[in-house]
């Protein structure tokens, strides 16, 4: 009981101090337009309103910063699970594995936060996509030890984190494909819709697609992101644009 109380107190302390000091100069039309490109539009709109959002660049950076801040919070929640799991080997293992995955995710998202102001959208997309997969890996680790309130709460939080990261990734993709004029942004298109991005930085205009022979079976997971089961690699991966 005490550990649960500490857990929630630490959440309150760690919540970012946002709108109280700087009232938002939010442009809800721009946010709505941008969020059309995302999979979880409501989550996108509600989380962006309190952050800088004057143009596409700012919206993308804000979305990334939001995801990064949530990730830091998820890390402290995972640490709390570990602390509360002495004497429970399976939960200890799951918590440690989750913590490791989130550390990997942090590294990727941090790289993206630093790369975006330099205009490195392609790198940002690659790193964020990896960061999202690690978040899903943490979720998967906890799934098997979901027998305390703390784990359940953390998994719900991870659901939202995955949704936010997926959204940030969709926004980057829209910018990369359609440019900074958000009027041209629409619902995220995926390989499922028969949409293949043009060659981009590879520059040869070749159509991109799933390599021949790869069997990918995609399912959408409950709270966000989706899972690609790759029979060759044998693993599960979360993916935002899928
Ligand atoms: C995002 O975070 C970075 C690093 O903390 C900061 O420099 C930047 O101003 C933030 N951008 C937005 C739009 O919030
Ligand atoms: C975790 O357990 C709670 C309580 O039994 C349940 O409501 C929830 O759906 C479970 N979450 C997952 C992801 O299995």
From TrEMBL:
Mind telling me which Gene3D superfamilies this protein's record contains?
Invertase/pectin methylesterase inhibitor family protein
Q: Which residues form the signal peptide?
A: 1-20
EC number, as in UniProt: 3.1.1.11
Q: Which residues form the Pectinesterase inhibitor domain?
A: 26-171
The enzyme's main class, written as a single word, is hydrolase
Family annotation (SUPFAM superfamilies)? Plant invertase/pectin methylesterase inhibitor
The question of whether Lipoprotein is a record keyword is answered with no
Q: Origin, by domain of life?
A: Eukaryota
Keyword ATP-binding tagged? no
Keyword annotations from UniProtKB, A to Z? Disulfide bond, Glycoprotein, Signal
Give the reaction(s) catalysed.
[(1->4)-alpha-D-galacturonosyl methyl ester](n) + n H2O = [(1->4)-alpha-D-galacturonosyl](n) + n methanol + n H(+)
Entry-linked InterPro entries: Invertase/methylesterase_inhib, Pectinesterase_inhib_dom, PME_Inhibitor
List the molecular function annotations (GO) for this entry.
enzyme inhibitor activity; pectinesterase activity
Role this protein plays: Acts in the modification of cell walls via demethylesterification of cell wall pectin.
* Protein name, per record: pectinesterase
Species classification: Eukaryota, Viridiplantae, Streptophyta, Embryophyta, Tracheophyta
């Amino acid at each position: 009981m005490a550990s649960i109380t500490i857990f929630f107190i630490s959440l309150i302390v760690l919540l970012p101090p946002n709108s109280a000091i700087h009232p938002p100069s939010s442009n809800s039309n721009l946010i709505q337009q941008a969020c059309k490109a995302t999979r979880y539009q409501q989550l996108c709109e509600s989380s962006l309103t309190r952050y800088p959002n004057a143009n596409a660049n700012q919206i993308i950076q804000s979305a990334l910063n939001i995801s990064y801040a949530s990730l830091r919070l998820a890390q402290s929640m995972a640490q709390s699970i570990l602390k509360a799991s002495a004497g429970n080997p399976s939960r200890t293992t799951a918590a440690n594995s989750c913590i490791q995955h989130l550390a990997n995710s942090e590294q990727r998202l941090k790289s993206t936060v630093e790369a975006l102001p330099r205009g490195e959208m392609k790198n940002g997309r690659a790193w964020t996509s990896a960061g999202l997969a690690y978040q899903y890996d943490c979720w998967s680790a906890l799934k098997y030890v979901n027998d305390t309130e703390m784990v359940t709460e953390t998994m719900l939080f991870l659901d939202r984190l995955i949704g936010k990261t997926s959204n940030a990734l969709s926004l980057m993709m829209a910018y990369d494909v359609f440019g900074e004029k958000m009027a041209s942004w629409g619902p995220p298109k995926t390989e499922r819709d028969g949409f293949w991005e043009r060659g981009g930085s590879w520059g040869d205009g070749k159509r991109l697609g799933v390599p021949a022979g790869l069997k990918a079976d995609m399912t959408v997971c409950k709270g966000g992101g989706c899972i690609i089961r790759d029979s060759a690699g044998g693993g599960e991966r979360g993916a935002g644009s899928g």
